């Protein structure tokens, strides 16, 4: 199923239908939460946005159970209901979801009309089996789904809504988007909440910043634009970039950093025994304003709050550089090299990722694609593109919050 890329790699969305007869909606595909919700026709804050007309569906059932969910970028509240839900070619009858009639204005904007949570039932606020998990357990012969997130940042699109935004494949993977093997990393049955993995290392400009911990759990989150992590580690990342500096509270982006746009910054992240390069196109968000045209905002920012499951949120900044796979049985997350536009993975001895340098070698068989980014950061992310991203910076932390 094709994905729509909105606001130059800020949001990736897909179409679904609800009800009898079906009503169509464009929703964020979000592995960082587990609930499906769409806007209700009675939502007073949702003017100009597509909303579900429950009185028009003959299969609609209102459970009258209150619903509320908090994200890093705002809240949504309404009522739990059931109806027929179809995405791609897969249908679940009597699927539980929420109709939202109260919404933080910064949470979504048109043409988005809701969110499809693709995480595990354990973190569902509704408490019912998520749509995808029901299919994985009862319908799909291959209980996994694969995601390709297209990069439009370096193509300078003229529209904020682009239908050629990638693809999500339910009940399998699409081998045309990747090359080589999928490197699966197992998830313990006790950890089936977010799709999360430990980070095995981070390298900036070739330097190992000495960060590796079994407790460094990262939520792999298609519903997040950027990458958020502990403030001390984020500071260590930017310490490797000459003349970088934190943005103050007066900028409206406290917790973010900026650095000279004429630097092509290379950041690599390790998961398991493989290391993946983040394109410099994805690291740079462009200048914050015309007042500082030579300073670009970086894609790593401080993660606030205290989530008991994860200390990192890894979003599209990373995921555009891999083909990602989410397997239900046995539970695992997999990454594969992109067939086009991505760098081959490297292998690393994770035992050597404490302080100092670590031996990293290229896996030449990993990809037939070229490098992920060329040209200057300022050219790759013009101010107009940065404006789209920074205007939607709230979406950068869309992972559902559970404390």
From TrEMBL:
Organism annotation: Vanrija humicola (Yeast)
UniProt feature, compositional bias: Gly residues: 366-375
Domain Peptidase A1: 12-336
Pfam families in the cross-refs: Asp
Record flagged with keyword Protease: yes
Highest rank taxon of the organism: Eukaryota
One of the protein's GO biological processes: proteolysis
Name used for this protein in its record: Peptidase A1 domain-containing protein
Keywords: Aspartyl protease, Disulfide bond, Hydrolase, Protease
MF annotations from Gene Ontology: aspartic-type endopeptidase activity
SUPFAM superfamilies membership: Acid proteases
UniProt feature, compositional bias: Low complexity: 349-365
Region (Disordered): 348-375
Protein family per UniProt: Belongs to the peptidase A1 family.
Disulfide bridge partners, by residue number: 43-46
